[in-house]
């Protein structure tokens, strides 16, 4: 039996990042080669921590109509996710449309973890024996699917909920699964994306692996993806949301179509939890191209995961080289705002689509002395570049040996 496959349109895009909420704000920072990395003096109390660097979203407060009643189940990560989703639904012209609440719209959303403050409250209970900080909403703020569940309740979405908590592929998994839900006729519309709140505990995860940057006195000079002089990653925060629709549904209501998602690939290394495998990375990209039905030569730009760690950068660039050689220009946003973990696939995917539509592609910030082990890819560095691309590829890779790749097509 042949299954009819629907085309999937991106009709809404928005986020909350260290560079702002609108593409206009973000583009101005990218064009200026700005950095959102700061020294975090509040982390000085953790004397064993090597890094003091982060990419925070400063000045974030929920809108006035977010009452205590509707936000008591939300930690910062869910607030970021919900606000980004509200902006994206408004961008798509669907925020006040009753059809999103009749089961036709679902949610696919992720984060690396729930709100760390709620995790801390349970930890305090276990260490002290007192439940003084625990209440009826503590778990709701802590649970791994807190972003997806809170978005569904806040907007009254009654379609399927697909929560993804797969570290640095949480958002790209969510977008990929949302795309498949529409492609195979399970939903007409989906909101999809990822969020992360900055917490010293997440920095400590990578600090114990000696994978964090310790350029604590020169925060804007790091991280340095692909660079010979890199010394590790920097943790950031933020959220971004895609509104996806069946293409014909979007056209019928006169929606602005910002791009199509045409391919998704995901697989597992199956051999190590923290050491990347260049061959399965390559296979994830091949799966996305096969799903899109386009050859590698069709890809005009690759947005890399590029954590600015030695093993990650080298494995990823080797995989990319075997598929694309020097044909497709490559860059990354990690140098600008750090590694936003469960949000990075959505934030970086949003910016990649916007760049594809504008024809201007940002360079990799802080890439000055290319690591020769990263091969001869066509790296965009120093300043941005004008490109005319019909198809672009977005990669993300995560602890657990998880690989994802998405193919976006420019809207005609």
What do you see in this structure?
With 412 residues, this protein is α/β, with parallel strands linked by helices. The protein has one domain (8-410): Peroxisomal Thiolase, Chain A, domain 1. It is built from 13 helices and 16 strands. The strands form 3 sheets. Strands 5-4-6-8-1-9-16-15-10-11-13 form an 11-stranded mixed beta sheet, with helices on both faces. A 3-stranded mixed beta sheet has the order 2-3-7, with no helix packed on it. It has a two-stranded antiparallel ribbon with strand order 12-14. A hairpin with a 3-residue loop joins strand 15 and strand 16 (402-410). The longest helix is centred in the N-terminal third of the chain and has 16 residues, at 76-91. It is globular and about 60 Å long. The relative contact order is 0.18.
Please specify the SSE layout and strand pairing.
Layout: E1 8-16, H1 23-31, E2 38-39, E3 53-55, H2 68-71, H3 76-91, E4 105-110, H4 116-128, H5 138-142, H6 146-155, E5 161-164, H7 170-183, E6 189-196, H8 200-207, E7 235-236, E8 238-246, H9 247-252, E9 259-268, H10 278-292, E10 299-303, H11 310-324, E11 329-331, H12 334-337, H13 344-358, E12 360-361, E13 378-379, E14 385-386, E15 391-398, E16 402-410
Parallel strand pairs: 3-7, 4-5, 4-6, 10-11, 10-15, 11-13
Antiparallel strand pairs: 1-8, 1-9, 2-3, 6-8, 9-16, 12-14, 15-16
């Amino acid at each position: 039996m042949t299954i009819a496959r629907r085309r999937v349109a991106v009709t809404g895009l928005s986020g909350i990042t260290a560079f702002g909420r609108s593409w206009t704000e973000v583009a101005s920072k990218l064009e200026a080669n700005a950095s959102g990395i700061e020294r975090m003096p509040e982390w000085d109390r953790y004397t064993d921590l090597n890094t003091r660097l982060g990419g925070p979203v400063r000045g974030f407060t929920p809108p006035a109509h977010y009452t205590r009643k509707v936000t008591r189940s939300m930690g910062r990560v869910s607030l970021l996710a919900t606000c980004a989703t509200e902006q994206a639904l408004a961008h798509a012209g669907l925020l006040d449309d009753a059809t999103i609440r009749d089961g036709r719209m679902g949610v696919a959303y992720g984060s690396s973890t729930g709100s760390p403050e709620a995790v801390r409250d349970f930890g305090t209970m276990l260490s002290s024996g007192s439940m003084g900080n625990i209440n009826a909403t503590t778990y709701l703020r802590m649970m791994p699917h807190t972003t997806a569940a809170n978005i569904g309740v806040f907007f009254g979405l009654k379609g399927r909920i697909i929560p993804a908590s797969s570290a640095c592929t949480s958002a790209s998994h969510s977008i990929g699964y949302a795309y498949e839900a529409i492609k195979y006729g399970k939903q007409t519309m989906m909101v999809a994306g990822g969020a992360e709140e900055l917490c010293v505990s997440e920095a400590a995860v990578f600090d114990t692996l000696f994978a964090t940057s310790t350029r604590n006195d020169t925060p804007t000079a790091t991280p340095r993806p692909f660079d010979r002089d890199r010394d590790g990653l920097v943790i950031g925060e933020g959220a971004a949301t895609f509104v996806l629709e069946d293409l014909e549904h979007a056209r019928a209501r006169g929606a602005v179509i910002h791009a199509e998602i045409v391919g998704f690939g995901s697989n597992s290394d199956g051999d190590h939890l923290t050491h990347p495998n260049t061959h399965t990375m390559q296979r994830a990209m091949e799966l996305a191209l096969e799903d899109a039905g386009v050859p590698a030569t069709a890809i005009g730009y690759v947005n890399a995961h590029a954590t600015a760690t030695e093993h990650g950068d080298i494995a990823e660039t080797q995989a990319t080289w075997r598929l694309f050689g020097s044909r497709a220009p490559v860059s990354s946003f990690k140098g600008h705002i750090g590694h936003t973990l469960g949000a990075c696939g959505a934030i970086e995917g949003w910016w990649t689509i916007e760049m594809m539509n504008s024809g201007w592609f940002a360079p990799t910030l802080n890439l000055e002395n290319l690591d020769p082990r990263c091969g001869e890819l066509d790296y965009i560095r120093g300043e941005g570049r004008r490109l005319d691309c019909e198809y672009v590829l977005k990669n993300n890779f995560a602890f657990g040996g998880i690989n994802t790749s998405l193919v976006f097509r420019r809207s005609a």
